[in-house]
Structure formats: structure tokens, C-alpha cells
Amino acid sequence: MGMQEMREELEDLSFRTLDPEAYSVVMQRLDALAERNRNLIGEIEDQLSNNLRHRGLGARVYGRRKKPFSIWTKMERKSVGFEQLSDIFGFRLVVNDIEACYRALGIVHTTWPVVPGRFKDYISTPKQNDYRSIHTTVIGPGNQRVELQIRTEAMDQIAERGIAAHVFYKEGVGSPTEFLKRESNAFAWLRHTIGILSESANPEEFLEHTKLELFHDQVFCFTPKGKLIALPRHANVIDFAYAVHTDVGNSAVGCKINGKFAPLSSELQNGDEVEVLTSEAQSAPPSAWETLAVTGKARAAIRRATRTAVRDQYVGLGRRIVERLFERAKIEYADDKLKGALPRLARTSIEDVMAAVGRGEIKASHVARAMYPDYKEERIARYGVKKGLAAKLKEKSSEPPRSPVAIPIRGINSDLPVKFAPNGGAVPGDRIVGIVTPGEGITIYPIQSPALKDFEEEPERWLDVRWDIEDSAPQRFPARIKVENVNEPGALAQIATVIAEHDGNIDNISMQRRSPDFTETTIDLEVYDLKHLSAILAQLRAKAVVAKVERVNG
Predict the structure, then answer these.
(1) Pairwise CA distance, residues 177 & 170, whole Å
(2) pTM for this prediction
(3) Which helix (H) or strand (E) holds 278?
(4) In the chain, domain spans
(5) Is residue 354 within 8 Å of residue 418, measured between CB atoms?
(6) What is the pLDDT of residues 423-482, one digit of tens each?
(7) Rounded CA gap, 312 and 305, in Å?
(8) CATH (residue range 477-552)
(9) Could you say which architecture CATH assigns to the domain 186-303?
(10) The domain over range 4-161 is classified in CATH as 3.40.50.150
(11) Residue 193 and residue 317: Cα distance in Å, rounded?
């Protein structure tokens, strides 16, 4: 972007103002070093120029002293002292073409000893902002470590003035935009940055993402087809997948690194070949990936996909609620008719209306009234907790007929925002009712749950729901049991063994001492259905260490 000079000036002014003590220390050291090596820069420049010229290579050579802020940040980042820094003096060799860059590198390396591990080739693998140069460090005159940058005139121009300014120095170039598209990685980097901006919810989020990428060293990895992907240091396969394409990231389910299966959270190293395995069944990534991702692009895409998936769930739930209300009221529903009613609902699209209904912000009856002004809401008798619940409990053993307007419930991993009663859950075989919680979706309660009395005065929140479980793909559902057991060694182990032997899964356990001889153990289980739960309860009652066991209906 051609802002290097401005950046250096701002860094220097900020460093001097915000940390004057550190600035003073660094400047004193630099001045002392300059006094001690008064002619060093000129001597090294002359030696480099002469060596290159004697080998038939013309080059423009110039040196400079690093800026105070750059030196201070490197000291802090590497936890080293001033004397241990190897690149206080930097020299630039500017030659005519790429071949000359590598010839110059050979001359330098045969003239002075090389510092191991201090070589980087950004010509063969440019940075994302199109920066290209060869970096190496040698031990020069006076045993002083010297950093060298070898580049062509064009590379130097891009590094100093930015890719956009460089375009106008080239002759025979039509549109600058076309040149950028054709020759520059920086254009792709700029588009990537704009993409992060468009996907970020606020300026703070954008700043967080761009800072992550600007201040990381890079790792270079490859796709199976040989495409180079540049990522920040510590990036993992999730970041790689989103760098390839957002759809690849959203549908990633596994990976191979250098031909071997590995977790998606695996940190990538330079030169890794990464193959991302995808599945059409996964349309949105797990929200937990956001904490694993390193790059701003990956985090923004995950957050966006999660928001879209949640919205789609609310849209689906809202549509089902509205359609079932219309079915029950025996009136016709059509999207075209709802479009005409959008102004009355203060929404701009059908999806907005359905999402609002799913979130509990708009009642389904309001939608019906907006479409049919003569519609009158019918008050439907709900399960009375105070009077009618006892009668309902007597009938709970018999499976109720499936209502054509009841919403089918498959489980937590469904296309609806569904969760289960927090203090006891619900399992297939229970008679259930759904309660709409604004902004959270449906909470499923068994009909015998005492918690339902809290919603008696809000009949509009009650939903008719039914189980819709596929035998071919069994799922586990939450249930809570309370066990009163003898306080003796091995009692908990016996209880856990019974549950494990009968294919139950323990999600959480809490224990409370009720008396010196007995302990009350509350266990959150995951079971397939009511029959499965009953079998586990029966086996627990048969154990000598168990005095009492019962299911908790929160």
C-alpha cells in the first residue's frame, strides 16, 4: 500500500512518547555502536560493491541502521539483549534480474561466513502482500553480524512504494487493475482483507482479525495439486481449509497431512502437503472451531456460517409453527399472500418473518391476522398442571395418537433449535410438550414436569410436539436420575458399572452426603428411550448398595 515510511514515522513517534525510557536506552546503545563503528557501513558497502563488480555483477548497494522501535520489539519478542541482535545494520543489494539475485547470493556466501538459520527466500515463495526478496545474515568486517536483502529494482520499488504505485512505473501496461489481477498476490491479499471487513460484525472484530495476520510469521503449505497456501505461524488445518475456499472450510470433516490422517486442529509446518476431506452432509462448521482457528478469514467465516445456520434453524421452526397454526385454523397459507402482508409485520422478507416467529419475537397468530384481518385466535386448552395434570399422568403409559399438526422432534442435532428440560430432560416414550423461549428456540419438557406450571399463564408459548425417531439411526437423549446409595467403598463404581453395562452414558455426576450412612447421587444420563431408562433403573434397584433410585422430572 506504499505506507512503509508513514508506518516507520508513526512507530518512532509512538515509541518515543509511550515508552521514553526504553527509547532512550535503545538510542544510547545505537549511538555508542555508531561511534565505535563509525566507518563500518561505508566499509561494508565498498567491499560488497567491489566483490560484485569483480565477479561481473553490477549492483546498487546501500546500508542503513535499523529503527529504534524495530530493534526494541525484536529484543522483546526473542528475549535477547542488544548485543545479541544480528541485524542492527541492514544492507540492500539491488540488481537487474532474478538470476542476478541468486548470483549475488552465491558471491556473498563465498565471501563471508553465513549465520545458520538466518536465510529466507521470499522470491520463490513471496509474501501475501507480494513482498519479494532474499534475506541472509553473514559475519562481516569486525565480526559484526550483517543482514543482507537481495532484490531486483521492481522488487525494491514494490517494497518501498507498494504494489499500486509500482504499476504506474511499468511501460506497456493497460489497466492497473488488470495488471494487479494478472501479476500480483497483493491484489488477492487486498480482496481477502476486504472480505474480512465485509464479514465482520463490527470494527473491533475486523481489527482483531487483521492484527492476527499482520503480525505473524508465515508458514507455506501445499494442496495435493501443488497450489501454495501461505498462512500465519501456528495456523492449523481449519485455517488451511478456509484459505482454499470458504465452502471447503464449512464442509471439512477430516484431513491428511503428508498422506497421513490427522486432526483438523493439527498445527501446520512449512512444506506440509494438506488434503482436506469434506462431506456434503456438513453444511455448517461446529461453532467451537472459532476458538481453534488462527486466521481472521477462518474465524469470520465460521462465525458467519454459525449465524446463518442458527438463522436457518429459526426460519425452519417459524415456518413449521405458522403452517401448523394455519392447518389447525383451516385457513390457507401461501408465501405469495404473506409477501403482501410484510409491511404490516414490519419485516422485509418471508425469511425475516419466519425467523422472528421461531425466535419468539412474533406470534404465529399475528402472522395469520396480518394475512387475514378477520382471523380470530382460538384459545386451545393446554395440559393443566393444577387440575388436569393428574388425569394426564394416569394416561401417560399409553402412547397418544400422532397429531397431524404436531411438530416432529428428532433430537438435538436436528434442523430445529431444540434443547431439553434443563433439570431432567426428556426421552422418547415420554409424552412431551414444547415451550418457545424467545431467542433460544424450543425447550422440550415431559408432560409430568413440574416446571410447566411456570408457563400456565402463557398459552401462546406452548407447542404441540411429537417424537419422530428413526430406528435405523438411534440417538441418545438426556435424563436425570437420583440414587440414594450406601456410603461404602466401591458403591459409585458399582452404580457406574451397571449404567455402562446397559449402554447408558454418564454425562455428569454430583454427590451430597445426607447422613453418615447414605449418599444422594444425582446422575445425568444419556439413553435411547424410556424403555432403555427403565431397564437401567431396574438393574440399579437390584444392587445391594442402592437403597432407592428414581427419575428426576425437573
Answers:
(1) 13
(2) 0.48
(3) strand 274-278
(4) 4-161, 186-303, 307-371, 389-467, 477-552
(5) no
(6) 888 888 888 888 887 777 788 888 888 888 888 877 777 878 888 777 766 788 889 999
(7) 10
(8) 3.30.70.260
(9) Roll (3.10)
(10) no
(11) 35
